[in-house]
Design a protein that fits this description.
Length: about 180
């Protein structure tokens, strides 16, 4: 009988608190790796800052599996660490503005209920772009940036749909793991 390394490690960690901390650490590391991978993918749509939003896979999965508070903490830590390691204070401001509006919107829609994870992810993608656009308008004192909104709306819908699809596929695979944590 073959035991995977993952199963072996989880069998060693009998303590539920230890399992949760380990899971949160893995999700944080995964979101940071996805941030780095995304930075390596050249995207040039004529609008600065348009990205797929790969780290948001972790945010969407977390929102539906570990709850809003741990997901928020993991996301804020990712934004801080990635901004300090690979960005600057403007990166931090744009990332946090996009995250805050996106996360609050997704959380609200989830609490209202009746919406699929993909619809919630699409709203998150759109609102992330809106948050970053608003931050840019405020920080750069340039209302003309609002002209980018139609492109950012389309990019947010597409990115949100792709992220929602990927997160849905991954969520199905990690449900078994999350059940082992709660026991």
């Amino acid at each position: 009988m073959r035991i995977s390394l993952f199963s072996y490690i989880m069998n060693i960690m009998k303590n539920t608190k230890t399992k949760k901390i380990s899971l949160y650490g893995m999700l944080l590391a995964l979101s940071m790796v996805l941030s780095y991978v995304e930075a390596m993918i050249p995207v040039n749509l004529g609008v600065p800052g348009v990205k797929l939003g790969l780290p948001n896979i972790v945010t969407v999965i977390g929102l539906f599996s570990i709850g809003p508070v741990p997901t928020m903490v993991i996301s804020i830590l990712r934004i801080l660490l990635v901004s300090f390691m690979f960005g600057n204070t403007m990166t931090l401001a744009y990332s946090f503005a996009g995250f805050a509006l996106s996360f609050l919107s997704m959380l609200l829609l989830k609490k209202v209920g009746g919406f699929s994870g993909n619809v919630i992810s699409i709203l998150g993608g759109v609102m992330h772009n809106v948050g970053q656009l608003l931050a840019a308008i405020v920080l750069l004192h340039t209302r003309q940036l609002a002209l980018y909104f139609p492109v950012l709306l389309i990019a947010g819908v597409i990115a949100g749909a792709v992220i929602g699809l990927i997160a849905g596929l991954i969520s199905k695979r990690i449900q078994l793991f999350l059940r082992t944590i709660s026991t």
